[in-house]
Amino acid sequence: MSKLIIVKKKITPFNKQISVSGDKSLSIRWVLFSSIATGKSKAYNLLLSEDVLAAINAVKKLGVKVKLNNKFCTIEGNGLAGYKYKKNLIIDAKNSGTLGRLIMGLLIDTKHKIKIIGDKSLSKRDFYRIAKPLEKIGAIIKLKKKGLPLTILGSKNLIPIKYFEKKGSAQCKSSIIFAGLKTPGKTIIKAKKSRNHTELLCKYLKLPLKVKIKKKYDYIEINQAKKIKPLNYNIPSDISSSAFFIVLTALSKNSKLVIKNTNINPSRIGVINILKRMGVKIQFKNQKNYKGEQIADIIVHGAKKLKSINCPSKLNSGAIDEFLVIFLVAAKAKGISYFKDLAELNQKESPRLKWGAKILSKIGIKTILTESSIKIFGNPNLEINKKIIIKNYLKDHRVFMTSVIAALSFGGEWHIDDKDSIKTSFPTFLNIINDLKNDN
């Protein structure tokens, strides 16, 4: 089967209701929390992507029983100190930074060295940022440069730390929270704003964690946990996956889309807040609280006019995975849009800020790019009538999906390589695209 997809036609207006896959961040966290719980946990709507399957394989290697079928998944945890494994264990995090970094916190008390590896893209990402605080707690970690492969050896004599997380990385913060749950005494984190799924799950599970919310930072206190109860969870739809269809609808006049039962956690809806400022009509219906998370149906209408934006940095952390597709809206907006303080984008699966500028250049949009910012000179009359080739992007699933949305929104003939990249996070992406294309 060819890994190349060719898109030749713009999408026609549609009026549709869809459901997207389960939230990836919550799916991986459910696997990890359940692996250290005492007893059997069950999840429905677990995302069956390569990243989540890598998390399942990781905990199975650590002696945890897992049963998986198309309807649900069960994990039988053996408690906080219940991992059982042989020497020379290797855990393959594949493409998942969430798995690779979070599981390091759970391995803070391991008796034998464990090696963590990943694919070519993940191996280039920065793991020193989490190795440094975990070493202060007591782990011995050896890295290849600042990335993977690495080895981690835990300690019996863990020491609580005070840590200032400056980058807005939910992965680093969550890893230290996991380590804190195993460490005697009080671990304290001053954390720049980022997604808070780990804290909400700790709160729902009544674990010894307190959060004081300040304007720019959260202060988190974690004490050693005695026991974690099983976690039964119906995982809501992923806002990051939904973002591609939100943008496709916004760029398609006279279209309307309803995305059912989606996670609208306030730390994740930066894309919604940014697009609203740019003139996109987005509403929430049927809102409810589910085990600490905010859930709603999202209703989006095609935009008649799009405005440029000078995007406040405070919105960055809530949209860090969605900026590539947000840039497409800026390309069609009237005026110059400016996005700053985005150096973290280049720490993702590919250097995404650079790839954003590259895609915009290919479609004839002028940009001014620095290491941490981009100016986008929008063209409300943007139409493409040429061949565009997208390849060699380290198989970054978001580059692939953004390119498909650009092709359907602006026209031209697009040859987009490595369609298998979506298996890491959103295997059903093209199925939903085809459903929308066949609406008429």
Question: What is the fold's blueprint, element by element?
Answer:
Blueprint: E1 5-7, E2 15-18, H1 24-36, E3 38-44, H2 50-61, E4 65-68, E5 72-78, E6 89-92, H3 97-106, E7 114-117, H4 120-123, H5 128-137, E8 140-144, E9 147-153, E10 162-165, H6 170-181, E11 186-192, H7 197-204, E12 209-213, E13 217-223, E14 233-234, H8 239-250, E15 256-263, H9 270-277, E16 282-290, E17 293-301, E18 310-311, H10 323-332, E19 336-339, H11 352-362, E20 367-369, E21 374-377, E22 387-390, H12 397-410, E23 413-416, H13 429-437
Parallel strand pairs: 2-15, 3-14, 6-7, 10-11, 18-19, 22-23
Antiparallel strand pairs: 1-23, 3-5, 4-5, 7-9, 8-9, 11-13, 12-13, 15-17, 16-17, 19-21, 20-21
Helix pairs in contact: 1-2, 1-3, 3-6, 5-6, 8-10, 8-12, 10-11
Which labels suit this protein?
27% strand; UDP-n-acetylglucosamine1-carboxyvinyl-transferase, Chain; 4-stranded mixed beta sheet; 13 helices; alpha/beta; 2 domains; 440 residues
Can you describe what's shown?
With 440 residues, this protein is an alpha/beta fold. The chain has two domains: 5-21 and 236-437, Enolpyruvate transferase domain (UDP-n-acetylglucosamine1-carboxyvinyl-transferase, Chain); 24-223, Enolpyruvate transferase domain (UDP-n-acetylglucosamine1-carboxyvinyl-transferase, Chain), CATH 3.65.10. It is 30% helix and 27% strand. It has helices at 24-36, 50-61, 97-106, 120-123, 128-137, 170-181, 197-204, 239-250, 270-277, 323-332, 352-362, 397-410, 429-437; strands spanning 5-7, 15-18, 38-44, 65-68, 72-78, 89-92, 114-117, 140-144, 147-153, 162-165, 186-192, 209-213, 217-223, 233-234, 256-263, 282-290, 293-301, 310-311, 336-339, 367-369, 374-377, 387-390, 413-416. The strands form six sheets. The protein has a four-stranded mixed sheet with strand order 2-15-17-16. The chain has a four-stranded mixed sheet with strand order 4-5-3-14, with helices on one face. The protein has a four-stranded mixed sheet with strand order 6-7-9-8. Helix 1 runs parallel beside helix 3 (97-106), helix 8 (239-250) packs parallel to helix 10 (323-332) and helix 10 (323-332) runs parallel beside helix 11. The chain starts with a strand and ends with a helix.
